[in-house]
Queue: 2 jobs
Job 1
Amino acid sequence: MGGVSIKAGIVGGAGYTGGELLRLLLNHPNAEVAFVHSNSQAGKPVYATHTDLLGDTDLHFADVLEQDVDVLFLCVGHGAAKQFLEAQQLQPSIKIIDLSQDFRWNESLRGEVVNSCGRDFVYGLPELQREAIQQAQHIANPGCFATAIQLALLPLAQQNLLHDEVHVSGITGSTGAGQSLSATSHYSWRSGNISNYKVLGHQHLHEIRRTLQGMQQQELPSINFVPYRGPFTRGILCTSYTRCSLSQAEAEELYHSYYSSHPFVIISGSTPDLKQVVNTNKCLLHLQQEGEYLVITSMIDNLLKGASGQAVQNMNLLFGLEEQAGLKLKASAF
Amino acid sequence: MGGVSIKAGIVGGAGYTGGELLRLLLNHPNAEVAFVHSNSQAGKPVYATHTDLLGDTDLHFADVLEQDVDVLFLCVGHGAAKQFLEAQQLQPSIKIIDLSQDFRWNESLRGEVVNSCGRDFVYGLPELQREAIQQAQHIANPGCFATAIQLALLPLAQQNLLHDEVHVSGITGSTGAGQSLSATSHYSWRSGNISNYKVLGHQHLHEIRRTLQGMQQQELPSINFVPYRGPFTRGILCTSYTRCSLSQAEAEELYHSYYSSHPFVIISGSTPDLKQVVNTNKCLLHLQQEGEYLVITSMIDNLLKGASGQAVQNMNLLFGLEEQAGLKLKASAF
Amino acid sequence: MGGVSIKAGIVGGAGYTGGELLRLLLNHPNAEVAFVHSNSQAGKPVYATHTDLLGDTDLHFADVLEQDVDVLFLCVGHGAAKQFLEAQQLQPSIKIIDLSQDFRWNESLRGEVVNSCGRDFVYGLPELQREAIQQAQHIANPGCFATAIQLALLPLAQQNLLHDEVHVSGITGSTGAGQSLSATSHYSWRSGNISNYKVLGHQHLHEIRRTLQGMQQQELPSINFVPYRGPFTRGILCTSYTRCSLSQAEAEELYHSYYSSHPFVIISGSTPDLKQVVNTNKCLLHLQQEGEYLVITSMIDNLLKGASGQAVQNMNLLFGLEEQAGLKLKASAF
Amino acid sequence: MGGVSIKAGIVGGAGYTGGELLRLLLNHPNAEVAFVHSNSQAGKPVYATHTDLLGDTDLHFADVLEQDVDVLFLCVGHGAAKQFLEAQQLQPSIKIIDLSQDFRWNESLRGEVVNSCGRDFVYGLPELQREAIQQAQHIANPGCFATAIQLALLPLAQQNLLHDEVHVSGITGSTGAGQSLSATSHYSWRSGNISNYKVLGHQHLHEIRRTLQGMQQQELPSINFVPYRGPFTRGILCTSYTRCSLSQAEAEELYHSYYSSHPFVIISGSTPDLKQVVNTNKCLLHLQQEGEYLVITSMIDNLLKGASGQAVQNMNLLFGLEEQAGLKLKASAF
């Protein structure tokens, strides 16, 4: 694969996921960034916005779209991805990886792919359907909470073991809310603070339910999710529990077996903490049998495995590259 | 009450709860600190340990116990309070407020008081049994998580409404773990980090269950509790939900009615956040009907309403002072 | 003084200093809040903005100014205070405490008071000129960095000891920049981050120089100030050093003597840290003779001794109340 | 260089710098970790200590030293490196990179190399003496503050421009103090806190002075350094200023010229902030002419360019690898 070089374009490159994608692609051994499109920052160097890239690249934000690319990453906001594809005439050969929720599975869709804007989109969770992704042309990249919760529950759904209510609580860092300024992103407010939001009504439940229901035959029980905003910047940690008859050993065997060929999912035998995965593309899982419940702790970096890292993982699969190419990242650890 | 001055002694004054108690009592209009006992710091000024008290007091830690006090606060560790009372000959007239778990309700005890070390201890949650506290001689001060969760559920238990499983997640700041140095209290580890612990097995569940079962006739359902360590110093925020047929309006009416005469419990009509209560003795509650569930968010400062503030509230009740005396604290807010 | 009750009005009550003033005045034994004016929030309860005040007051923001007050606090932005006084017809009997920089000493002013808007303003640093404040009708409350740096240097200036360059570095928390949203107040940016700004050119140098030059006969040397933004919400810590022939003992004697009658300035014999003063009105000083230099560390809570707390201290002086009334605050400590 | 693979051993691998070195070497294209020695953790997997490495390596800590390595990194504490070399019989062919201060330039040494334990040690600051490093056998890796301050001042010293006092303030994150538990590393203490320490007396001044005096002919003026502990984990930011007659343009030209061939030193035209370099091996510099002063802001990640990253950079130079090999790291950015 040494000689392969994928030409990538980024649309909406001035936001957090666009910046993170740049950080990855600039160091990727088999990819190069052909252009970074931004309406708001066109003409300025990308390091004026993503200031850590000073010294790494002289790329400037563009206001026109080049068609001579192999893959296009859409890093625009929810709703804007659909608008973009409706408005643009793209070469049909260009593969698309969309990081918004516009083409993800949702409650109203029942098929295996989402057909929209004249394209079939495959839901891009490699640990669910790597083969489908490898064959796909257009990818809908999963949501961050959705990734952490699905990876916690996939093996149970596959074994038809989700029969009783699932209870999930999860905490997200501030980058999950993007770079727009808001009351809950103000440092003076968020520092040392905790709050919950959208309790039992988070929008990612749609794609989570769609995935899990697609895997198991019996009807999916309710999934109750309490999301929290936490005083940190990167990462998501979720705790899920449900009644389950598996012993500790059986549960561990099931999860090890399910994820044995998936390099980014790691099962920890000891109690983990979020910073083990921060600044990596890993998902760390921990299993605990407590009374009649199985407790699954899952954690990811929301900007990597929860967004741009998973997008690169999908790119690697789309183009037959090694799945971990460009994603062997040094954890920040502290 | 202007002329009343309660003479208070503190045992175990070099820890976090001892220091917080000093901060409160030094400013209390009807109390004075007679002595602060500490084995480890005896002879040194209290401001050498609680450095924010520099300029506020010249008290020194003592290694002998004065008997000429009206009330004794025990701020020693779990287990050490019982040992202390077994070893000491105290004047029977001295009232005792113990902040450890040694004399709290527990699973093995079924009566209304805990009799231990030759004394009857009343569980000191004023919003549960203010009258019993006013008549008591010895108080077992509740745990921090136990306070936050009980205050969320008391009105439901009183109305016999806890019939289905209760699911609770909660996040605590670092001061809850005290001042001893440990891996999870290291700044480099905890900053920006999240972890869960004692999932479905936290020790405070005993006192929570004992209280709630004592209030309602039907058998108490299981209470599933997921505790988290968060990257902040002060405060606890919990989210509890259970199936409940009350409408939003009925739930609010029930809680407003239950807490109408309790000045420290505030019901918020809008989504709250932890820093509304940090550095105060308040408990803030928020109610949300979601589908078949009632969701209750509750939050306290773990060192105040969850420990030393509640201890002073109990002292006020024991001595017939105004319940809020010395506890009208300026929130830090940021 | 038990019977005294000052009627206070607040203009610009929806900002950080306005909120902090409310937190203080609502608990002040000799003051009551007559009204809180806010253009942006008029008609809404103050707890809708300052959410920690929920349960403490039912005051609403007003859009008209009542004249039946004893003192008016101006908490509006720099420039807006002057505009306000030019536009309003206020009863001459109303005392004014302005928290902006509009009426502070500045480079262009040489007299002992600032005359502007038809009024004489006295610079409200009690540790510099308590008697002048007690006689004053209008107060210009000092800036936050200016307070921390002046309190570090006043005793030296009084003794004519500032003859060589003074070098100051200082770090401020995020509340110093107010509640407006900006790139440097975004949580994702500021968390774990450090930056300097206005190096050698901070605007508070004007009032610092004016004070110090007014105290000593010889010409004031240059004062070089490097300000930093730090990842915390409350507080300012400054380190100042200059060549000085005083021994350690002489320096300590000088500072103890200068501040002996000033209850909020505390001199620490051991190395201090910022959280000793957070959520208090104290200024903590530490002295260190190093080679030919005297090093002075000073620290305050920027919203209290650096803004609203000092404003209340000035109110106490204006009305002959005890200087510490309403300002014996529990430190948050953690 | 594709085929080159350096065999590296790590002594003292259970600490912060040892862990960071592992994170780098495990992903390095031209290196492999032969063994990781630790007295305290021998026999345990390295991921038991450096938990983010779970899934990356099955290496275990060893208690014996293998001699079949090309390079040995010493990550033990100050003093222990010297003891180690005195006690061990090492193959003379093994290159050594020591991260302690034991073999750095110090006040008592005047030569170009430090001869100790029968070996010549070259001070490993590549931007000072890359050629000497390339020829060396033993490297003394510079201190973290020393790196940040030297990189700020090297071009001035080279031009003989340090003639007037230099004033430096700098803030370090908690990982600079290592993983041992102490009062100032307790989360409850350090969160939201600031303190200074070793004011005007930091031990890194020795190596800074030695380097700078070695570069310029005139006598080096005094360097006054005020270090701070900040509430963050990674990074050092320093502000240095001294009287200098260079214009802004001349200063920028000088620095650009000095660092043009040094890939890790970046000169920023706009005001920088620490997180631009966190989790990278970069040093970011910013220049500002203010009145008669030149102000230089410099920042590094203390564990990377300030320790283990610089150690790998030195390894690359020792073995003729590309200087940036294994060090093109994704910034954490948030």
Job 2
Amino acid sequence: MWIMIKGFPLVRNVSKLPQGSFRIPGLSHSTLAGSVLHGMKEARHYFVEVWLQTLAPGARTPIHRHSCEEAFLVLKGSGTLYLTTNMHPEFPGNPHEFRIFSNSTFLVPIDDVHQANSPLYSPLFFILFLFFWRRFTYDDWFMPHTAAKLLFPIFWDAVCYQTPLERDEL
Amino acid sequence: MWIMIKGFPLVRNVSKLPQGSFRIPGLSHSTLAGSVLHGMKEARHYFVEVWLQTLAPGARTPIHRHSCEEAFLVLKGSGTLYLTTNMHPEFPGNPHEFRIFSNSTFLVPIDDVHQANSPLYSPLFFILFLFFWRRFTYDDWFMPHTAAKLLFPIFWDAVCYQTPLERDEL
């Protein structure tokens, strides 16, 4: 059966969902569920998002952190996760390096600066679950926290909100 | 690198995670992330869970509802989702029937009674993301709401809570 619920078919084909890149080279993004876009009522104030993303061979996410935890499941491919678990007080500092692989799962703790990349020879497919909140990006691992760029409102905020919310500072 | 965070390695192999069945025949369950088990701090009061489940050929979940929305991604296999979108006030009533398939995604609305099953010839693999709260099960689609069984505390509640929380009633 094919009925519409809140303007969407209940069951959707992931390969036919709209894709975006957030202007990150090599990133492909689809929103599977989102508090604002798809009406997850219980979660509306918490910005719960379920995302499917692909990093093309050799691509990488920005070095960033956010004030929410983030759970990952790698569906296909392998890559590297860089993560600062014991940050220098002024800048992220040298991150730990973790191998991530097909069928691996990990949870990025709140405000730990991190970055994922894919190897040069293959793409990395993963699904992520997060309570999206403030997101800060770094040019490198030694950029002071105070200089990190706050990306807010972001992509879907810009679509959904009429008035930007109040910014917070580190 | 292989370091422990809160007693767990940061990156875990999903195929080596503990598996359970919640006593549902044909169900295999692994918790990828959970508010109580894995310390998703932001979410602690909201019971956020990320689960990977498999239904063996011909298996089905109980007919149930819960006071939270639930997002699904089918990783492999196909099956049927039964869902009551306009419930009879006294019992669930005849459900709508939706085909679910590999790479499909769907969001079960709050308190809609639902059931998923796998076909006789193959298993169904899916990942689900939910704010777990009260869960009620039905013996069939015409069992009165007032007779539905409240399963609370559930599996992991029983492990994690020392004192059961207050029950609510329909």
